[in-house]
Target: Glycine--tRNA ligase beta subunit
Amino acid sequence: MAAPFLLEIGVEELPARFVPEALEQLRVRMSEWLEAQRLAHGAVQVYGTPRRLTLYAADLAERQEDREFQVRGPSLKAAKGPDGRWTKAAEGFARSQGVAVDDLVERGTPQGVYVYALKREAGLRTPELLAGYIPELVLGLSFPKTMRWGTRDVRFARPIRWLVALYGEEVVSAEVAGVKTGRISRGHRTLYPGPVVIPGAEAYVDVLDAAFVMVDVARRKEVIVDQVRRAAEEIGGQAVIDEELLEEVVHLVEWPTAFAGAFDRDFLQVPPEVIMLTMKENQRYFPVVDGDGGLIPGFVGVRNGGDHRLEVVRAGNEKVLRARLADAKFFYDEDRKIAPIRAMERLRNIVFQEGAGTMYDKVERVRRVALALADRLGLGPRDVETVEAAGRILKFDLATHMVYEFPELEGVMGRYYALEAGEGPEVAEAILEHHRPRFPGDDLPGSPAGTVLAVADKADTLCASFYAGIRPTGSEDPYGLRRNALGLLQILRYLEIPIALGEILDLAEEALRASGFQDGGTWRADLDSFVTTRLRTWLLEEGRRHDLVDAILGRADEPLAVLIGRVRFYESLADEGHSGLYETAGAAKRVHNLAKKGEGLAGEPDPGRFQDDEERALHEASRLARQELEAARAAGDEKRALDAMGHLNRAVHPFFDRVMVLVEDEEIRENRLRLLRDVADVYNLLLDWRQVVLS
Model:
């Protein structure tokens, strides 16, 4: 009869970030094992708190399903003699398989007829199987960091203190790291510090609930959200529930109780971002805002315990927060005493990248590139003045106390301090915006000055890092270059910047050289490949066709928005089976297959050496197609560009039908190959047809 299985791994308090991943590993590993063991089961669930990782498999079969299988023995020719009697080979095989020789059966195979032993393997009892798997399951969990304790050579995230393993009401006997399984769990560390007896797997959640341990993660999250909102309403505001903070708090407590606290109104002179980050990063508090979204002098914390003596808890937390905010106000007041231009001088002592200069050098390069971009984009005089002014002090806040304490506030504090120092709002906003986007889904820069500074900053970071020999490797990217590249691509794509990516990187490279850095190695080629790969990955993750992405992204001399628009255009044609697309693809591939034999030939085809009308017609069609294609591209008309190839397509097939290219006469042969190479180049102006797969 089926019964639920419960496994609880009791540990010293785990870091909150360890819990979700460990629970998911438990669920996946157990599900896979149950399938491999032929054990029928219901839903596999996981529960967890800082002190326990729990697995619960419902309706787990009492034993494995019996297995019937066959084992191949000798060939029939070897198993039976001419007289039809079993040979010694057959008898030995039957004996080794534990079956009677007369029970062997004959089966045909592609290699001939063989004899088989039909066998039946009775399934083992589930508790026996679980007993053998529990140590493997527990110790097979991986964590960002592990530790050893006592004298045992066992590693786990934290010391294992108890194990509960129950199949229904039956204890599954096993041992892990010297701890034997049983039915004794533990309640809340302070509210119910004694042992808790789990009579059966089904009673687990309710029994621990009575011991002030809320093991259901989803329920605990709902309770916290509800309590936090109500606590904020009690002090006349609305809680700002950050999802990342909420997830952490959920895995910090076993029995949540929210409470509201207050701080001195004078601290509201400090920028709200500072107060909110102080609450989140240092204290795990939820900020509270009024109906207009303005911060009020209150917060909501979540206690790991009940509501007894909550006023003492509130007072203690208010005292700690008061000290934190006093530090923040001190930093804020001290930072405002230093002019941004003076703070910039401190950047001369901060290395940007080893081998790529200081942060001061970087700011100078970014300003140079941003001004060049402003010129090419035709920005107005006021925007250029903003780029110049913001570029002079772009990263001065790196030298402030506040950004040293909270690096996440880089740019945010730059904006506040710039306004305090008398800089115009456009300059202050550009200083903030040049960091955007920081991550996928983040806001893009909203002003022309902020946009060119953001593009220049990201391009310089990529160029300088690759120049200095810094590359992302595998999953390692400590300098965030993948994120930086994606941010640059997002700006170019979504803001439709009409400058090619390659041209932007050229400007950043020129700024490096102008600063005295000598070119060397393959860093630029490596960078181009890195950024293109990042773009390709991004588009494939969106579901774009890989062949069209590869066929179009090779054009680094066109704006990114244009290239991606082209991918979409050709995808739509391919989806609808557009005849012109298939016609051009067929003609282009036919040309490319032979044109590659002339890739090493120098010079242009000589019309005076043409022997046939089809050669002349193809040459003229190629010339006209190139002109029409370039005009269509200049007008941004992709359909017209594809239509321009129609006349060329119609000239290709007669050429191949009536003209022999690889003739013995070397001069004629090479002239025809040069013609095909030029025709292939015209097709490539549209896209690289060699990459396209159309069926």
Remarks:
- The chain has a mean pLDDT of 92.
- The two ends are 55 Å apart (CA to CA).
- The CA atoms of residues 551 and 688 lie 5 Å apart.
- The longest strand covers residues 112-121.
